[in-house]
Design goal:
314 residues, alpha/beta, Rossmann fold, seven-stranded parallel β-sheet
Amino acid sequence: MKICVFDRGTVWGDDIPLRELPELGEVRLFESVKPDEVARLIGDDEAVLCNKTPMTRAVMDACPRLKYIGVMATGVNNVDLDAAREKGIRVTNIPGYSTDAVAQLTLAHILSFAQSLPAYYESTARGDWQKAPAFTYFPYPLMELTGKTLGVFGMGAIGMRVATLGSAFGMRVIYHSRTKKDLPWAFVSKEELFRDSDFLTLHCPLTPETREIINEEALSQMKKTAFLINTARGGVINEEAVAKALKEGRLAGFAADTLAAEPQRPDCPLIGAPNCRLTPHIAWAPRETRERLIGILLGNLKSFLRGETQNAVV
């Protein structure tokens, strides 16, 4: 089988060898490619592995030998699934591989706010501790998480993992999801979630119902002392509304690992907003997490080659 791999560097990087992939067929590797180059580069290949490269109907029309698209992620919004279904092209994804990693970064953001870590790192590096008259100094806010309310919007695998970790810190966990589940935490309305959370963390998919679920109205319901964390999709946040709330002191802090447009654009509304902490879409990227992803990716392809089905979206 001839296999075309796009977005190789977003998954394998330089720290993980290709391992078994070359044993499965004739492999060609590409980094970022322009949309109008995709069909030409695939040519007569039968399988494509990709992360964000758009696999459109036009690409599939131009590549009649294509039989398999393995998406190196959970989301498959870069693939025209209707076209793949019509043409009998198998599409697979990688579910559940990053639950622990995303939950870990979420808690890291929460702990960073609770301890004012960036401020203390910078202050100590400036030599402020050397000048302190006592053994300690604490000009920046510090808080215990025990007793604080953690609101979780979206109670899938990641949301449940975050809730479990929050509970371990002694936090009171409440949640809102599409359906009420048999869980040890309180199910509440969206309005109650926004109103009562000291830390509100988002773990929902981006759908027409959740797009910009955090907007001016939602922010007006939140405590001025609340912190907002988004490790879901950037589109669930209205970035202008969040930036405005931060600047006006109506939100204590905001942390996000995703933005509406990625990479971050120079005109991103969040640039320069106070107590706004952004990471460049790294929640899924620990080496162990990517190794797990690659293992599932190769398992999906092997199953297809054996005539079996594993993690098929189409």
